[in-house]
Amino acid sequence: MKVKCIELNEDFLTKDKVYEATKSVMFGINIYWVVADDGCERTFPRSYFEIVKENEEMKELTEREVYANIKEGEHWECTDKNCEVSDIVLHNGELAILRRLNISGDKIPSILDKTTFRLKRQEYSLRGFWGVWEWWRNRECWE
To answer: What's the pLDDT score for residue 141?
Structure first.
């Protein structure tokens, strides 16, 4: 996770600088493990930092950035509806590039460096949940 230093520690931290951190608890105290300015991993109280929220949903990447950064199971949608490529998906180690169907026969422009892609979040359904809920609710052992 990313955290921003809000309390100055003159020896190891710089105020308003963003660090990569790992949460932990040591002797009952909430701490972060942070790679400090001197390059060593050190512990600091969580009160020294605030969490930096990254909005992955709004993040847009170019085609080359998607190819370089795509992770297993990710689905990237093209933001330009007139582009030849509609989606880029990595599934079971295989990269799938989905193209738009061109019914009219018009030439569809290929991807340009300025074309961006947005990460599509997985959509979940509660359909199966309600069946399991009813089954658990109606069990005899609950009575």
So the answer is: 59
